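call fold(seq) -> C-alpha cells
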Amino acid sequence: MKARLVEEVHRRLAKAVGPGDSCLDATAGNGLDSLFLARLVGPSGTLHAIDLQEEAIRNTRLLLHETHMDERLLIHQGCHSQIELFLPTEEKGNLRAIVFNLGYLPKGNKEVTTRKESTLSALRKGYEWLAAGGIMSVLCYRGHEGGKDEEAAVAELIRSSSWISQTLPGSDSGESPVLHWIEKP
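ret:
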C-alpha cells in the first residue's frame, strides 16, 4: 500500500513537473523524492529540500551526489514550516510542486516526527509559494504516535481552505498512509 501511494505521487509529479521548473521537497528524508524531482526539473531547474534532521540532510546530499544530480539541489536544515527562511523571495508564487512525507525518517529515530502544528503552518505557507497550476503532495503516515491526529488536521485544513484536492487512502486500515493531492488553480 505504501509503495502504491509513493508510485502514484511520482506518476502525478511526472505529469506536473518539467525541465526548468522549481520544486520543494519539504521533508527530504532519505532523498528519494528529491532525486525524483531533480530528474524532472533537469539541469535548468531548481530543487530545494528541507529537513530538520542532520541525518536526512546527509542522506539526501549523498544520494543526489552519487547520482550526479546535486548541482540542482539547494538543501536546507530546518523546519518545513519556515519556507520563507530558506527559499529566495523570487520563488514565492513560482514553485511547480511541493512534496511532503509526514511521519518519521525511515530507518531513523522514530521519536523525531513531523508535528501537527508545524505541518499545518508549512502547508499554509507552501500553498502561498505554489505557482498557479502548481501541486502539493502530502503523504501522511499514520502508524506512529500523533500520525492519525496529524492526518486528520491536514484533511480539515484542506477542507476548510476549500483547496482543490483529492484524497487517496492506502487501504481501509486506520494505520495505513493517506495521500492528499492539492492543486492550486
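The domain at 2-183 is CATH 3.40.50.150 (Rossmann fold).
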